[in-house]
């Protein structure tokens, strides 16, 4: 019998559920090999148990003991306190820690965890829930190629995986970690516009879903640039030209690029604010 890799997820919020939901989908809807723990919200753990068959732990010890992989799916400002709680529980010879926390660097994570702990940094997105995450991974000092291969397999079950140098993680976070939000933001603008122009919310939602899904498919299937693709829709003096002219006049593209730059900068700033403190390094 082959050993089913056991996974503890610390944190039970949006990202944890996206991961659990995606992994469960690849396993007949249930993920009994996943144990989940949060801080206070027991009701939330019970919901996840009911929905996906995950085991809801009562303590860090119960959550992480004997697990092959521990995923930190908590906010960046909670990572150090959780790492502190794990120090006496982790076995660096056997266990891999994967952090999905935005910004927090591998070196910082390694300094908070027991010496020689294998750490991998991951940046998935909430499209994991529909097996369509665009995840980036960076490998820490002590993680083995085998552990990286395992992380690739884990995140491949919920979408695509790209291994990047850690220096590229802030950019990947601004583009792909936050990325779905930009599309939902545009969808919201389209929805509000559609309703203002007289469509019913249900009609509008259906049209917008199909339009965004179709455009995403075209982007994936075509070798044409995004510009070529929108130019194809623009008849001279037509409707699309009228809309794009208005967007260009308002520098909407520049605004979008600046917005993404803000996300990338924020990821770097989060990382810098938790920069490794040598006094706290565990030996
Ligand atoms: N949301 C996203 O799209 C993405 C998020 N990320 C990263 O994932 C991480 C989680 O984000 P997200 O899921 O959105 O956050 P949420 O706020 O939705 O969830 C945070 C979770 O952490 C739990 N928690 C807080 N403190 C502790 C603790 N000491 N021990 C155990 N659990 C704790 C909370 O429990 P309780 O409710 O009981 O307080 C809650 O379940 C962040 O670091 C973020 O940067 C990465 C990629 C995309
Ligand atoms: O907004 C955030 O901080 C998280 C990280 C990437 C996506 N959401």
UniProtKB/TrEMBL annotation:
NADP(+) binds at residues 10-15, 73-76. Gene3D superfamilies: NAD(P)-binding Rossmann-like Domain, ProC C-terminal domain-like. Pathway: Amino-acid biosynthesis; L-proline biosynthesis; L-proline from L-glutamate 5-semialdehyde: step 1/1. Residues 166-268 form the Pyrroline-5-carboxylate reductase dimerisation domain. It is found in: Cytoplasm. It comes from Shouchella clausii (strain KSM-K16) (Alkalihalobacillus clausii). GO terms for cellular component: cytoplasm. GO terms for biological process: L-proline biosynthetic process. InterPro entries: 6-PGluconate_DH-like_C_sf, NAD(P)-bd_dom_sf, P5C_Rdtase_cat_N, P5CR_dimer, Pyrroline-COOH_reductase. Residues 6-103 form the Pyrroline-5-carboxylate reductase catalytic N-terminal domain. Belongs to the pyrroline-5-carboxylate reductase family. Keywords: Amino-acid biosynthesis, Cytoplasm, NADP, Oxidoreductase, Proline biosynthesis. GO terms for molecular function: pyrroline-5-carboxylate reductase activity. This is Pyrroline-5-carboxylate reductase. The keyword Ribosomal protein does not apply. Its EC number is 1.5.1.2. It catalyses: L-proline + NADP(+) = (S)-1-pyrroline-5-carboxylate + NADPH + 2 H(+); L-proline + NAD(+) = (S)-1-pyrroline-5-carboxylate + NADH + 2 H(+).
